[in-house]
Every structure is written in C-alpha cells, then in structure tokens.
Amino acid sequence: MKPHAARATILVIALLAIGLGLAACGAKSETGKGEPEKLTLDLDFYPNPDHAGIYMAQEEGFFSEAGLEVAIDSPTDPSAPLKDVASGRADLAITYEPEVALAREQGLDVVAVAALVNQPLTSLIWLKKSGIKSVADLKGKTVSYAGIPYQEAFLKTILERANVPASTVKTANVGFGLIPSLVSGSAQAMLGGYSNVEGVDLRERGKEPVITTVDKLGVPTYDELVFVARRASLEEEGQKIRLFIAALKRGTEAAVKAPKAATEAILAANTDLEPKLVEAEMTATLPLLGARTEGQPYGYMDPKKWEAFAAWMHDEELIAALPKAAELMTNAYLVDEIPE
C-alpha cells in the first residue's frame, strides 16, 4: 500500500471510530445505542398536582426520549432537598424562592435554575361566614400560620399595608393544622395555605373560602416553586439540566391538554390522595403550571423581581446580606426544545 493511501485508510478508520463514539454517547435511551443519563430529583413534598408536569413527562416517556433516567424522591424531612442538592446527593430539588435566599445565607451551594410555579400560591384565607371583609377586619381576630418565619413576615407586611397594628392581631402557630384551625373556629383567618391546595380543599368542603395570594396584599411577588441545582456542578451537569427542563416543558403541556391523564398520573404516584379532591386541585393548578412570561422560555425567572423580593427579605431582617439576582438564580439552562 502506498504511504498516502495508508494515511487515508487510517484517517477513515479514525473518523468512523469517532463517529461511532459520538453516536453512542448521544443516543437516546430508546434507540438501544446508549445508556440514559441518571438524574435524581427531590420533590418539595409528597406527589400532588403541583408535580403534574413531572409525572406526565415520566409517564409519557419524555424524560426517556431526552436520554434521561429520572429518579423522583419525596422527602420525609422538608429541609432535606436543599441539603441533598448542596451535598451532591441529588441533582435537582424543588423548593421555594424564599428558601433559596435563606440557603445562600447559610452557605449552601445551591442556585435556582427554573421556575415550576412562577407566581405566589401562599394565601391569606378566611371563610365568608366569618364576616371579615378585608385585612382591616382582622383587628381582634386570630390568624393561624404554619410556623415558617418568612410567612410571619408576610403577615407583618400585610398588616402594615392595611394600617392594622400587629399588636391587635393574635397569631397561632399550628404547623400542618391550618385547615382544622379555620374550620373549628379557633382561628378566624389562616396564612400559609396555597390557593390551589388548601383553598380548593375548603371550597370542596362547601366552606366558601375567601382566598387572596400574598402578592395582592403588599408582599413583593416571587416564584413559589423553583428547581435548584448545585452551582459547583453546573458546568459538568448543565446539559443534563437542559434536557430535564425541555422534557418537563413537554410534560407540562401534556398535562394541560389532558387533565384527566395528569390526575391519574398523580394518583398513581400517591395512592393516599382522594381522587375527587385531586381532580379539583388539578383544575386550579394546571393554569399555574402552564403560565409563561411572554417572550421568555419555559421556566423563566425575572431577575428584577428576584432582587426586589430579596430586598424585602433583607428589610425584614430575614437575611443579613443583600444578594444580587445572579447569586440566587440563573436562566442559562432554560430551553424550549430538547437539545441535540
């Protein structure tokens, strides 16, 4: 064989080897040409309608088509998801915008990478029969809350805006007992329930709740539910996060188009739930999951709103340092289509 022919043959073989290697690395799992990448996700709570897009993406095979094998875990300890991500035990976790700022204050290496629900769900709720017409009528009343410090600050801001002295309103830390406290009459209003969960539950019981999200009462708007990742891992794991978000977008769109299927997916994931209530909660939740900022990709978080909310937390002495948005969140991993 002539020297130049030998060199050409070697080059062809090398190119073929590289091509086969790339194909194996980039192949989707269903082709059988490569193994899917594993991704672990910690939920914020037990499976519920807030997670409809996730379970639809799993059910419809969208994660698999993106080349991912997603393991979903429900925490028994509410503080575990952020710690799991910071320590590298989980790739992603669902948490709340205020918790991201608090985690930074604690030195946890986490950053928000996408919004799951891009508006507040936390609400001030009272029953129509209470006779309360506005926040001003809370004077002399008892408000129950879940014991979360920043929700106490929510109430403080709400009362200040309505010119209601905090000293004239009693508060009761009831933990997970928000609905019982309101139904029993031990509290005349409650703060901390979600408009699409506790609010719907009360409505389904025929209690005629009056529900107002906190951003309508003076608290700066924020993203209620967000995905967080470990900042130190972003360079290495960034493409995997992009794949997850693109597949989740497809799952969310599928849930919005097929509420019954989304309800069934959640009920299959959590058999302890009551089907009729889940169906009602799903109806209230899907518009929230499908909400998009015009002109922005799915999962977009507004940096200016994040800075305004962080400034409020700083003013309320919930955090000592005032962070820039870039220290808390990034939109760099948002995509509307599954990357090639």
Characterization of the model:
The protein has 340 residues and is α/β, with parallel strands linked by helices. It folds into two domains: 31-119 and 223-327, Periplasmic binding protein-like II (D-Maltodextrin-Binding Protein, domain 2), CATH 3.40.190.10; 122-217, D-Maltodextrin-Binding Protein, domain 2 (3-Layer(aba) Sandwich). It has twelve helices and ten strands. The protein has helices spanning 3-26, 52-59, 62-65, 80-87, 97-105, 149-161, 178-184, 198-204, 234-257, 259-269, 275-289, 303-315, and strands at residues 37-42, 68-73, 92-95, 110-117, 122-127, 142-145, 170-173, 189-194, 209-213, 225-230. The chain is globular and about 65 Å long.
Q: Give the integer mean of the pLDDT values.
A: 90
CATH superfamily of the largest domain: Periplasmic binding protein-like II
CATH fold node name of the largest domain: D-Maltodextrin-Binding Protein, domain 2
CATH C-level category of the largest domain: Alpha Beta
N-to-C CA distance? 40 Å
Compute the CA-based radius of gyration.
24 Å
What is the assembly state of the chains in this entry?
A: single chain
Give the strand content.
15-25%
